[in-house]
Write a structure and sequence with these properties.
The protein is mainly α. It is built from nine helices and no strands.
């Protein structure tokens, strides 16, 4: 788990299939995904930094099957209605501003990001669920607070995804996590807890 990075999820995504869903070429889809993933994980991290948000997010993770990102991702299996709810919850009233900032940073159309985020959000939660299940749970049970260790591990996992990787922060796929998060300024964390 310590070596987890956004690139791990990026490498599993079927960019050609996503491009088809968005009606753009693969290069455009890759740029859009490269901007949207750090924004999404940054929004999740901002929510997880709040205790109520962390509990809510841990509950949401328990409802997202890691199988969605195992053995090859099929975008057709993604529940985009659920994805839209996740995006609204993560970004709250700042959603349109986040989309505008990310589209500018990624050099893509805001309409493409509006369609992309609900595709990526369930995949991101399934990815986190998979990573937490692989080593993020505390051993034994902390009484009835089973979500508490998950919430604590979640903050650490998200922090590692966003800040970890050193030189890998700007990957071969052109994913510039720091640049995207920096362009968002104080917009992250505006979601409902």
């Amino acid at each position: 788990m310590a070596g987890a990075s956004i690139d791990d999820l990026l490498s599993e995504l079927p960019i050609d299939q996503i491009a088809g869903e968005l009606g753009v070429d693969a290069d455009h889809a890759r740029r859009a995904v490269g901007g949207a993933l750090p924004a999404l994980f940054g929004g999740l991290k901002a929510n997880a930094d709040d205790p109520a948000g962390a509990r809510s997010l841990a509950g949401a993770l328990s409802r997202h099957d890691p199988g969605l990102v195992e053995g090859g991702v099929d975008v057709a299996q993604v529940d985009t209605a659920d994805g839209a709810k996740i995006v609204d919850h993560v970004f709250g009233a700042h959603k349109d501003q986040v989309v505008a900032q990310v589209s500018g940073a990624a050099g893509t159309d805001p309409g493409v990001l509006q369609k992309l985020l609900p595709i990526l959000a369930p995949l991101a939660l399934s990815f986190l669920s998979k990573k937490l299940g692989a080593g993020g749970q505390a051993d034994g049970s902390a009484g009835s607070g089973a979500e508490t260790p998950a919430a604590g591990g979640l903050g650490d996992l998200l922090g590692g995804l966003l800040g970890g990787g050193g030189s890998g922060a700007s990957s071969g796929g052109g994913l510039d996590v720091g640049g995207v998060l920096g362009s968002l300024g104080g917009l992250l964390g505006g979601g409902r807890r």
